[in-house]
Amino acid sequence: MSALRRLIPPYLNPSTTFEVLTACLWRCRTIALQPNPNERLRFLFIVNARSRLNPPIPNGYYGNAIAFSPIQSTAGDLCQKPIRYAVELMKKAKANVTDEYMRSLADFLVINGRPHFSTAGLYFAVSDISRIGFDELDFGWGLPVYAGTAGELPGAATFYISYKNKKGEKGVLFPTCLPAPAMERFVVELNSMLGESYGHLKASSGSSVFVFSSL
Question: What pTM did the predictor assign?
Answer without folding.
Answer: 0.82
